[in-house]
Each structure stands twice: as C-alpha cells, then as structure tokens.
Amino acid sequence: MLKYQQIAAEIEKYIEQNAMQQGDKLPVLEALMAQFQVSKSTITKALELLEQKGVIFQLRGSGIFVRRLKRTGYISLLSNQGFKRDLEDFTITAEVLELDVRKPTEEAAHSLNIELAHDVYYVKRVRYINGQTLCLEESYYNKAIVTYLNKEIAADSIFRYIKEALGLKMGFSDVYLRVGMLNEEEAKHLGLEAGSPKLCAESIFHLTNGLPFDFSRVTYNYQQSQFFLQGNGDFS
Amino acid sequence: MLKYQQIAAEIEKYIEQNAMQQGDKLPVLEALMAQFQVSKSTITKALELLEQKGVIFQLRGSGIFVRRLKRTGYISLLSNQGFKRDLEDFTITAEVLELDVRKPTEEAAHSLNIELAHDVYYVKRVRYINGQTLCLEESYYNKAIVTYLNKEIAADSIFRYIKEALGLKMGFSDVYLRVGMLNEEEAKHLGLEAGSPKLCAESIFHLTNGLPFDFSRVTYNYQQSQFFLQGNGDFS
C-alpha cells in the first residue's frame, strides 16, 4: 500500500470513528498535513482517492466534506469482491462448481483481447449471503496474466489473491447490465423459478496498464440484491 | 464552461475524430500543453476530468491512453439525461404525465434533507426510445433550489435547463438499484404485462456544494434497457 493510500484509509477510519455525517467538514489541508506528518501532495492524492471512492467531496474555497450514503445494506455494483466491506453484517460464502483451464468463448476472447486458441482459467461459482443464494458467477481469467488459480482460492477471494499473491494492480472496469428472466440452469443454481427476474452484470476488469485480465458474467438473485452506485461530476 | 472543461472536450473530440481505440497513446503532457496553448495545471485538470469520465487512463511513467467501451448502444446508468450522447442513433422523447408543486413523500423528504412541509416540484413522465417506452420516471425537485419548472421544460431536458437557465452546478449522485416485477400501473405506462421484470433506479442528485436537489425513481422497460458503467480504481 502506498503512503497516500494508507493516509486515505486513515482518513476514512477517522470519519467512521467520529460517526461523521454527509456534509460534515473535515479539517483543512494544512491541518491534515500536520496531523499525518506528510507533504501536501500526499494529502492531495489521498483526498483525490477518497473523492473517487465517494467518501468525501471537495468544494473549492470552502473545504473538504464527508459524503455518506442515505441507505445501508446495499451492494456496490462496481466492486467485485467488495461484498464484505459493503455488507459488513452479512456472511458471504462461495461454492465452486467448476474450475479448469480451457479455451475462451468468442465473447470472452473478444472481451479479453485474446485469440480463441489462448488459455483461460474458467471459474463457475455460486455465492451465498447468509446461506441464501446471492449470485451465479462465471469468470474467464487470461492465463497469461492470472497464471495460477485453484478451488481453494476460488472459494475465498480471487481478487485478493490476484492482488496480494500475484502482485497485480487493478485499474478500471467496464460493466454492462441488463435485466431479463432466469433460464432453467440459472434458476436451478439460484434456487428460484425459471422466468423470475434477473440482473445480469457482465464486467471486464483491467490492470492499471489497461490490459483486461477478467471477463465475468454475474447473474443475481433479485430477491437478495440491492445495489448502490456513486457518480461523480456532471451527470447530464 | 471552464477552460479545463473546454480542453477536455477538445481532447475527447480529437480521440473521436482520429477514431482512436482503447490502449492508443495520446501525445505527452508537454505536447498537449503546446497544442492547446495552456498551462500544465489546466491540462492536468482536463486529463483528470477525462479519467473520471472513463475516456482515458493514465499510467505513471508511461503516458496517457485511450479508454473505449467494447460495446455500443448501452445507456450510461450514471447520467440522467445522457441518453442522447450514449445513444446517438436513437431518438429520445418524453411525455409529461404530471407536473405540479406539492409536498414530498417521506422518502423524498428524507432523500432531499427537507421537511415534509417543504415544497417540491413533482414530475412524472414516460420516456420513449424510437417510439418505444424506455422508462417511467418520477422526480422530486427541491423547490428552494429548482425554483421553476414547466411542462415544456420537462418534455425536453430538465437537467440542461437546471444547468443552463438556473446556472446550478451538478456535483455527485447516489444511485440505488433493485430488480423486481412491474406492478399494474408501471406495466400500463410501459406497455408491458404486470409481473414482467423491471430495473428500478432511485437516485439522489447533489449540487457541487453537497445539497441534494433531485430525488428520482426510474423504472425501466427491460426489453429496451442495456446499461453500462465504468469503474475507476481498485474494485476489490
């Protein structure tokens, strides 16, 4: 973790511990520099990160303010493994149905910018929230980047492993959503009736250097799923 | 429009006109400064804006690269009025069903941080894409901020009016999503069967100073709706 990321985490903890609410003002830049004993550029980068994460907003000439969601218990649509953070009171588990090395589908190859002859790790798992099905997930990892995976890793957090064990840096993601009706197979895995509503999220995850390393399709159990998103900047 | 916003728009146009693809490298900072005849700080702010918008990604020590979605025809979930930009080949129209000044619901009052006795503009409209229903929208605007609205404005773009005529600056938004089944009234407005799948997006839009000015509930026609989202930074 880089210095500014560490400072960002500490400021976030400070907001939590002081139960600060949306609109509450944080100390000014100079006070934060003194408090954390770091340079202006480190604080500035930490604040930018927090702004991007939707934890604060900055108002030129007025200061730095806390940003807080009005509702709790929602899942972040933009974090893949972030269930634990967003749903702190819930227990998330995963059951790995399949894990093997294979050739990608056309869609996966296109999404990952690789040839059809290229190897991918394919992972299919069901994730549970407090023992109820949360989602069915199919992922294709470019094996040239994610060089090793096994069922033990997949039963826990693949993204944490990719970051901590493989040392890869996650950059940005594109997510495509559509709403539809569950087919027989999806319904079976989620324990619902075929024809029930579903939210399907297809995501392409990239490293900081722009290389796509994971294409995933997640089908959510609509009864368990409430999502939040935070937008920054002009939304018109 | 501020200088850096203008430069950002010009860089975006440059990417379009040169049909640049994801991973294509943009000129270095110094070259952009020379090309647009502006300071380093202006270019830096323009690039930050483009990074936030998902148009570029920056790789420390390597340069500035173009970011492009793999798929077209999707609607941005984080832009309220952005249908025109994201769906350039489509025609979006709106039919205003109701528009009046009233007291907010409890949910709207809570979302807008106002009292129940406070006035809001209530707007209910159906939006169409190429003549097909796209969504049913109900919005509550804090009348102390959005001081005037009428049906003519609501039939066009309320957000453009808010920005251009009222001069308000849009800051950030929180969006809550859930999937469910259409009730009778929603189904009637969308021309679908009751019980069909729906995506419901409830959003709170804030000014740059953090004041919430609009709470909206949008119910999408699942047959017409495909959405995209762009995430930045670490998504684990």
UniProtKB/TrEMBL annotation, chains A, B:
Superkingdom per UniProt: Bacteria
Matches recorded under InterPro entries: Bact_HTH_transcr_reg, Chorismate_lyase_/UTRA_dom_sf, Tscrpt_reg_HTH_GntR, UTRA, WH-like_DNA-bd_sf, WH_DNA-bd_sf
SMART domains documented for this protein: HTH_GNTR (SM00345), UTRA (SM00866)
Keywords: DNA-binding, Transcription, Transcription regulation
Molecular function per GO: DNA binding; DNA-binding transcription factor activity
GO biological process: negative regulation of DNA-templated transcription
Coiled-coil residue spans: none
Residue span(s) of domain HTH gntR-type: 1-69
Protein name: GntR family transcriptional regulator
Protein's organism: Ectobacillus ponti
